[in-house]
Design a protein that fits this description.
With 681 residues, the protein is an alpha+beta fold. It has 3 domains: 14-164 and 235-279, Rossmann fold (3-Layer(aba) Sandwich); 353-539, Galactose-binding domain-like (Jelly Rolls), CATH 2.60.120.260; 560-677. The protein is built from 11 helices and 35 strands. It starts with 11 loop residues before the first strand and ends with a strand. Pfam families: Peptidase_S15, PepX_C.
Length: 681
């Protein structure tokens, strides 16, 4: 992931604000157990005479180097408009004390509550607080909101989830998300082991670093010990009790992001929430791709001013839900822009949505009901290599390729050319009557739009661990040959279907590397007829439309940097025809840059390799490698990590190795090995 600001995007750069801003660096916030958290605070200079509300961003990604560029675009903006904008490194990360033992621990929430207590006591504080953040910062904003601290009045959560088990980088539809579980664990394995800055914390940095290196665990071990929905995953999943969050929530998503589904659920279930979904990947909407970007920081100010300053900014009159309906496009692995239009809904579920059902017959999707037929769906282990990444960050190569490359490896059903254009908004569903020849099985479904010229653009996909048919908490073996019924929920979409295009539905019991393969090759039998059908969410525009307009994107002037090494990206699918081995090599050199404000030089490289042999699900192999550098001219550190995952029919095998170097000399090396039984995976 790249925490940077693209210079090429058009936006207004603000160098002055209504209130003059001062930056307080290396502020220490004491915890009750003696731990100190590192904070940077941007304040209006007159805040002692005119106290202000506070907004907090609370992350593990190192405020003084790794996110310093992006932080400088956002926090001074809020401060200049009358807020104390606070950026805190989570315990065990950046310059904060301690070790980060896992994501979203209770300790993380407890510390946030103590940060609130500290803020309330400051002479510049009015005692009203908001939280904002994307991804990790969006997750913990929701989790902390459920703790109901009286000073926390509202949150803005971007690209986050309410469900840590079924809608994050660990398990999707009850399946191991093979493309991302190990990758994200390997990322945090390396990120969390980086050292403190000796210029900030003093001589104790080395002792703390060695402690982090020795005791920061590979998180994947704990994640893989919990292969079903249990108390481990319920912790931090606000869907367990939406009523715990009583404060207003502004939930933001993007159609290219991996967490868009949660916005629909939060708008539906939280007592005081509004939702916004644009065309973006996993990045803030004022700097995200693809275009159009929006004046999102101005929208945040409207939200903060209303809920933290009691000003009438019109927020309460805004629609409940604003979404971007994308125009049809031919498949590309990245887009600079996605044409479309904003639409609004007064509630979700919306009276604007009707479901249209399409029946399946041999190779066809039809609006007419069909007689029951048996359709055989075989295993092709290399199906899925052209799916793109689960959660795009806007890098070249992130998006799905032309699905004609996949369709020969699955069973495809195709509609007649559409006689009129249609808008889709919401979740497609596949109702499926099936049987399996194995006790353990999964099913995946892809929904695509086929152009008259033949190109097939992936619109949505979903997968279901069929052993989790009735429960993610209590999976059961399938009885081979027995007929079951399942519902596969595909990812949400906001998409116009073009007249003359065809709808494609593809079904398969494999989807590598998104889903870890079943232990044995699976052959599914699908029974068409009234119990097997595709449901599409048709937007009928029955409500009166609210005219949506956003200001031009504006940010504060970002800090100066010197590019030491440029970014590069490659993503290659390789087929060894002799071994019949398929391999995806995904390499990202995120470059190296020097921050002129503090002299820190930091960079990263990441290579992920996914391999499988045709016909052999037990040949699945993932290797994730990281190289992280951080230092100055006279202080240089490097981390090299390797994380691997394989399996046999009964067991998963994990190997994680970390090497640390100081001034090109190895000072630490350790390997963690773990064997974990398969649990209906």
């Amino acid at each position: 992931m790249v925490f940077n600001i693209k210079d090429s995007q058009e936006r207004e750069i603000l160098r002055s604000f209504p209130r003059e801003v001062e930056k307080k660096e290396h502020v220490w916030i004491p915890m009750s157990d003696g731990t100190k958290l590192a904070a940077t605070i941007w304040l209006p200079k007159d805040s002692l005479e005119n106290p202000v509300p506070a907004v907090l961003e609370y992350l593990p990604y190192r405020k003084d180097d790794f996110t310093a560029i992006r932080d400088s675009a956002r926090h001074p903006f809020f401060a200049g408009h009358g807020y104390a904008s606070i950026r805190v490194d989570i315990r065990g990360t950046g310059n904060s004390d301690g070790i980060l033992f896992d994501e979203y621990l209770k300790q993380e929430q407890d510390d946030a509550l103590e940060v609130f207590d500290w803020i309330v006591e400051q002479p510049w504080s009015t005692g009203s607080i908001g939280m904002f953040g994307k991804s990790w910062g969006g997750f913990n904003g929701l989790q902390v909101a459920a703790r109901q601290h009286p000073a926390l009045k509202t949150i803005i959560t971007l690209y986050s989830t309410d469900d840590r088990f079924a809608d994050d980088v660990h398990y999707r539809g009850g399946n191991i998300l093979a493309s991302d579980m190990l990758w994200w664990a390997s990322t945090m394995f390396a990120y969390s082991a980086r050292p403190q800055d000796p210029e900030v914390v003093g001589e104790g940095w080395k002792k703390n670093w060695l402690d982090r290196l020795e005791n920061t665990p590979p998180y994947v071990q704990e994640w893989l010990r919990h292969q079903r929905r249990n108390s481990y995953w319920k912790h931090g999943s606000i869907c367990e009790d939406y009523r715990a969050i009583q404060i207003p929530v502004f939930a933001v998503g993007g159609w290219q992001d991996g967490y868009t589904d949660a916005v629909f659920r939060m708008v539906e279930n939280l007592p005081n929430a509004k939702g916004l979904i644009g065309p973006w990947a996993h990045e803030f909407p004022e700097v995200g791709t693809p275009e159009p970007t929006i004046g999102f920081l101005q929208e945040c100010l409207r939200w903060w001013d209303h809920w933290l300053k009691d000003l009438d900014t019109g927020i309460e009159k805004d629609p409940k839900f604003i979404t971007w309906i994308q125009e049809p496009v031919l498949p590309e692995v990245n887009y600079e822009s996605r044409p479309g239009r904003w639409v609004t809904d007064r509630s979700w579920p919306s009276s604007n949505i009707d479901y249209q059902e399409l029946s399946l017959s041999e190779g066809k999707l039809t609006i007419n009901k069909t007689e029951e037929e048996t359709i055989e769906v075989p295993s092709v282990q290399e199906h899925g290599f052209y799916a793109g990444v689960f959660c795009p960050f806007g890098q070249p190569g992130d998006l799905p390729s032309d699905q004609r490359l996949e369709n020969g490896k699955s069973i495809v059903f195709e509609s007649a050319p559409l006689t009129e254009s249609t808008d889709l908004l919401g979740h497609p569903y596949l109702k499926l009557k099936f049987s399996s020849d194995q006790e353990n099985a999964l099913v995946t479904a892809r929904l695509s739009s086929k152009a008259p010229s033949g190109e097939s653009t992936l619109l949505s996909w979903g997968m279901l661990n069929l052993n989790h048919l009735h429960s993610h908490e209590k999976p059961e073996r399938l009885e081979p040959g027995k007929v079951y019924e399942a519902t596969v929920k595909l990812d949400s979409l906001g998409q116009k279907l073009q007249k003359g295009h065809r709808i494609e539905l593809a079904i398969s019991p494999t989807y590598w590397p998104q889903a870890w393969p079943s232990p044995k090759p699976v052959n599914l039998t699908v029974y068409s007829g009234e119990n097997t059908r595709l449901q599409l969410p048709i937007r009928n525009n029955s409500e009166e439309e609210y005219q949506v307009s956003f200001e031009k994107p504006a940010i504060a002037e970002v800090i100066e940097k010197e590019v030491v090494r440029e970014e590069t990206r490659s993503r290659n699918v390789i087929h060894d025809t002799i071994k019949n081995e398929w391999r995806l090599e995904d390499f990202s050199d995120e470059g190296e840059r020097k921050l002129l404000q503090n002299g820190i030089i930091h960079g990263s490289k990441n290579k992920n390799t996914f391999k499988i042999n045709a016909g052999d699900p037990l040949s699945a192999h993932i290797c994730c490698e990281w190289e992280l550098t951080i230092g100055r001219e006279d202080w240089k550190t490097k981390l090299l990590t390797t994380s691997e995952m394989t399996s046999d029919s009964t067991t998963f095998y994990l190997t994680n190795t970390m090497i640390a170097m100081e001034k090109d000399k190895e000072i630490f090396r350790k390997t963690w090995k773990e064997s974990i039984p398969r649990d209906f995976q």
